[in-house]
Write a structure and sequence with these properties.
By secondary structure, the chain is α/β, with parallel strands linked by helices. About 30% of the residues lie in helices and about 15% in strands. The chain is built from 25 helices and 25 strands. The longest helix is centred in the first third of the chain and has 19 residues.
Length: about 725
């Protein structure tokens, strides 16, 4: 007799590197496996809606090619030749390599390297406890948020904004520099509620005609890196036509008269020449937000990933300050609420044993660090040993040629803790199998909303998979790292953090699944004052003193404009490299996550670069042709897709595909630079000048990515 499976529905939290941090309802089948994954209806921001790739999570957690045993390299680096070993052998060998590096070059020769493959506080940030206890090299994590957060905080003084659920109460929603249909579907949930219930207008500002742009009432398709010009021209019109809220400006902002004078020459005609937008569209945008008090600016990350990204973010943020939209429900601006939580994670990170004299290396400069660049090494010792968790730099880091050369060094020992045989894991000396989020406990907060959320263990992992915390504790005991955090369980660490932060206990959070900590309307809309010492919104910026995390000013920071402007620091097209390339996110991937799952691979099909029809015709290119993109950093072979939704001179390659998906093993980040975005750093993934040419010799190449994932071990 066949018994029906026992299905239990449990709440948890999506751990991936996405501001939505969705509340999930998961089917647990017979206590052992995962079935359907849905958005949690009782989560006020998720509101029952999640992206398709997470809804298909059973194909990821139960993927036949998951890593399930520790491995040790037995062939050349990158050969994927490994043998299965025990956990004790893996941890002992790794600890011996770390201790040897420390004996030869000092503790800074070891560099624990991580990022946001999970956003859980315990599993993401615990690596810093090992770092601090052993005085290993620090990491300044600048690859994603730094330019955006710096530009936003430059205006508001803290990283917080109007409740994102207020989009549903808006009369005009401006989605700027993000494609939430691909990356944050919940933004669209709340934005489209306002259209349905209130007849709100939707404005979208972006660099190609993506699915979010197709939803817009007013779609502003501008050239990459020119957002500051659009913002300045819009504010010019607001002042010129009497649409600026002068009472609000006098009460809440620092220098409105100086701003107005500065903008006198930033006319729509000036901006049209820079952005490529028609003057009429710039003026229509300004009049729409100027006459619609409930205008909500949802500012994304994409437009900050340019060499002038911090300036662009600040300029766009200035518009609702000029209109006074912050005063109204459904008005104001939002980028991230990451500054509202106040969680004390000192025990998780081992902050009490951190040594401020230890160097901090730029995450984005990993290629330069590993190839011995003295500036990137801060004139210190070489990095000769690494532990890597939650990131895949051999696929996603800029300056890929340097990154791959660095990982190929025979004198570099690398231990990679991963869920799949990624391209970084393939270069490792030791590979350790990792749990997934439903297989361990953790705690999460959201950049995109206002909830503290619990993620309980729902099922057991494959027998030999271990969590990040377990690996760190195992290494700590072998390398002599002492801290009380290594003696605590994940639940104990979560409970300690919640109690010390005045946020209750782990039992209370688990009972609720998530708690809403949205600040009051007055605080979220800065009606009780902005975050600067003078309590005013700042149009004028002292860039080297913006209160965002940093290791000192970098890049051409002395040239930053002090008032909103178009800052021409971008990698402009040249006769040698006449196209501008952006590596925008694909819908079915999340950075390099999900590019191993059948559902995502079948939907994305293959790497392509979008080319305007006239550009394609001038170069004899047709859809499906192989083309070569190149600049001083390298060259990439990729298929062309003719698409009218890009501007002439602009190329879009939705990413991130693994390097193995390209004929010569060179992925799109071969072309991106690691030069730092002023003032505090970051990677300009959407700011690359390249040459484009049709490849005339035939190329026979169809990547078998499933096979790539399935061949890690040779006895």
């Amino acid at each position: 007799m066949n018994l029906a499976p026992r299905i239990e529905r449990r709440y948890t939290t999506c751990p991936h590197d996405c501001p939505s941090t969705c509340g999930l309802e998961v089917e647990v089948i017979d206590g052992r496996s995962i079935g359907r994954v849905r958005g949690a209806d009782n989560h006020s921001y998720t509101a029952g809606v999640i992206c398709a790739k997470v809804a298909r999570y059973s194909e990821r957690i139960h993927h036949p090619d998951r890593l399930t045993h520790p491995l040790r390299r037995v062939g050349p680096k990158g050969s994927r030749q490994f043998r299965r070993i025990s956990w004790d052998e893996a941890l002992d060998h790794t600890a011996e390599a770390f201790l040897a590096a420390e004996r030869e070059h000092g503790s800074e020769a070891v560099w624990p390297y991580y990022y946001a493959g999970t956003m859980g506080y315990v599993m993401r940030d615990g690596i810093n406890r090992l770092r601090h206890a052993k005085r290993y090299s620090g990491q300044f994590s600048s690859i994603c948020t730094t330019p955006a957060w710096t530009g936003y905080i430059a205006g508001t003084g803290r990283l917080a904004g109007a409740d994102p659920r207020e989009m549903a109460a808006s009369d005009c929603v401006v989605i700027w520099g993000t494609n939430p249909v691909h990356t944050q579907v919940n933004v669209m949930t709340h934005a489209l509620r306002s259209r349905k219930k209130r007849g709100a207008k939707l404005v979208v500002v972006d660099i190609y005609d993506n699915p979010t742009m197709k939803q817009a009432d007013l779609a502003l398709l501008l050239k990459p890196g020119t957002d500051g010009a659009l913002a300045c021209a819009a504010m010019h019109v607001l002042f010129r036509e009497g649409l600026a809220d002068r009472d609000y400006l006098a009460r809440y902002t620092d220098c409105p008269a100086d701003l107005e004078a500065h903008l006198a020459t930033r006319t729509p005609e000036w901006a049209a020449a820079i952005t490529g937008l028609p003057v009429a569209d710039i003026e229509a945008f300004a009049r729409l937000v100027g006459t619609t008090k409930r205008s909500y600016f949802r500012l994304g990350y994409g437009f900050s990933r340019s060499r002038n990204g911090a300036v662009n973010m600040h300029a766009a943020l200035c518009i609702p300050a000029v209109t006074g939209a912050w005063q109204y429900e459904g008005g104001g601006a939002f980028h991230s609420n990451s500054g509202i939580y106040g969680l004390q994670k000192g025990v998780i990170e081992g902050a009490d044993v951190a040594d401020g004299a230890i160097r901090r290396l730029q995450q984005t400069e990993i290629g330069r660090v590993l190839t011995g660049d003295p500036e990137s090494l801060r004139h210190g010792p070489p990095v000769t040993a690494m532990l890597i968790q939650n990131t895949n730099p051999v696929s996603i880091a800029p300056e890929q040629e340097l990154v791959k050369r660095g990982f190929a060094r025979e004198d570099l020992f690398t231990c990679v803790h991963e869920q799949f045989m990624t391209e970084t894991a393939a270069m490792a000396d030791i590979v350790l199998p990792a749990t997934m989020f439903m297989e361990h406990d953790d705690l999460y907060t959201a950049g995109g909303h206002q909830h503290i959320q619990f993620g309980p263990k729902l099922v057991d992992p494959p027998v030999e998979c271990r969590s990040n915390h377990d690996v760190l504790c195992g290494l700590a005991s072998r390398v002599g790292a002492e801290h009380r955090g290594f003696t605590m369980s994940p639940r104990e660490l979560i409970d300690d953090m919640l109690r010390s932060s005045g946020r209750g206990t782990v039992e209370e959070l688990e009972a609720e699944s998530w708690i809403d900590v949205q600040p009051s309307f007055e605080t979220a809309h800065y009606l009780d004052g902005f975050g600067h010492a003078d309590r005013r919104f700042h149009f004028r910026v002292d860039w080297q003193h913006v209160p965002n995390a940093n290791i000192g000013p970098v890049g051409p920071w002395r040239d930053l404009p002090d008032l909103p402007d178009h800052w021409g620091s971008i990698e402009e097209a040249t006769p040698l490299h006449p196209f501008r390339l952006a590596t925008s996110p694909a819908r079915s991937f999340l950075n390099s996550s999900f590019n191993e799952t059948p559902g995502s691979l079948s939907r994305e099909r293959r790497p392509e670069v979008m080319v305007h029809p006239e550009d394609a015709a001038s170069l004899g290119i047709e859809t499906g042709d192989w083309v070569r993109l190149s600049n001083g950093r390298g060259a990439v072979l990729i298929r062309a897709r003719i698409y009218e939704g890009v501007r002439r001179g602009v190329l879009i390659a939705e990413s991130i595909w693994p390097n193995a998906a390209f004929p010569d093993g060179r992925g799109i980040n071969t072309l991106t630079g690691a030069d730092q975005i002023a003032p505090y750093g970051g990677a300009a993934f959407h700011d690359n000048s390249v040459a484009l040419e049709r490849v005339r010799q035939p190329i026979s190449f169809e990547p078998d990515l499933a096979r790539r994932m399935a061949e890690p071990v040779y006895a």
